[in-house]
């Protein structure tokens, strides 16, 4: 199927996205970029708008679970739950010595002073505490293995419908009393606007490496929000990532939009012992509170993207973000070691 790059009206744009929704390996031409946007070309997922959008949200154009027939660790019932809620929590996926080893690996990575001033190591807005360490599947062989472990990558394959590659990886670290929160957002909104990810064919896998409980800032998600794309107000500032990774202000839904969605769908916060795995769709709205408890909360995230959905020119930013935020298909670990 060929996708035309000529200007589309909204209806046609939606039709084309839904035609390609379940079809891996489709050659496509980007239908929108910042430049053509100003010529009134419609994007199925427009955001970073200058005027308040008429509608709070637009319907998702891409199927959610695309690989039911593929082999993998998830049952059909688990895939059903993911399809319905936009996330799935699997308690105690990893236990015992294997979990201990992963936790030691995380501690070693987070305390490695060599990473302190690197761009892939992001500190808290008001301190030098590391908040996020990116590219961890390249920094650590052990985490690299985990990213291709069938229990994790196989689940991603069943969801996105083809073998994945790692678009992004990170450890988010929230030390006791000091770890700050994350504002509500859809990851896809940022990856589409700032990295050029065309469609919703990506899933995050977050292995919780410390117990996540109600007081240490567990991830909160709006079940069902993955089916609604919320366009956000405000142009992307230059080098937005330098501030947004510390505290995201652009690319966040309005309080009105969030109020409407939460009124309809509620909020859930899967919690559990270290070793649980949370899979969540790239468009599920999520956030987390600061950690005011004494217990640290640390999770490692792998974002799996479908190879035919690799990023190109950003849809609503002047230039692509650095590689550590959006790896290409052929990126090598050596760049980070
Ligand atoms: O780690 C968290 O609590 C939030 C993670 C998140 O939203 C992100 O890194 O985009």
UniProtKB/TrEMBL annotation:
GO MF terms held by the record: 2-oxoglutarate-dependent dioxygenase activity; iron ion binding
Catalytic activity: L-ectoine + 2-oxoglutarate + O2 = 5-hydroxyectoine + succinate + CO2
Keywords linked to the UniProt accession: Dioxygenase, Iron, Metal-binding, Oxidoreductase
InterPro entries in the cross-refs: EctD, Phytyl_CoA_dOase-like
The UniProt record lists the keyword Aminoacyl-tRNA synthetase: no
Superkingdom per UniProt: Bacteria
Tagged with keyword Chaperone: no
EC numbers, comma separated: 1.14.11.55
Required cofactor(s): Fe(2+)
Gene3D superfamilies according to UniProt: q2cbj1_9rhob like domain
Function: Involved in the biosynthesis of 5-hydroxyectoine, called compatible solute, which helps organisms to survive extreme osmotic stress by acting as a highly soluble organic osmolyte. Catalyzes the 2-oxoglutarate-dependent selective hydroxylation of L-ectoine to yield (4S,5S)-5-hydroxyectoine.
Family per similarity comment: Belongs to the PhyH family. EctD subfamily.
Oligomeric and partner information: Homodimer.
Protein name, entry field: Ectoine hydroxylase
Lineage: Bacteria, Pseudomonadati, Pseudomonadota, Gammaproteobacteria, Oceanospirillales
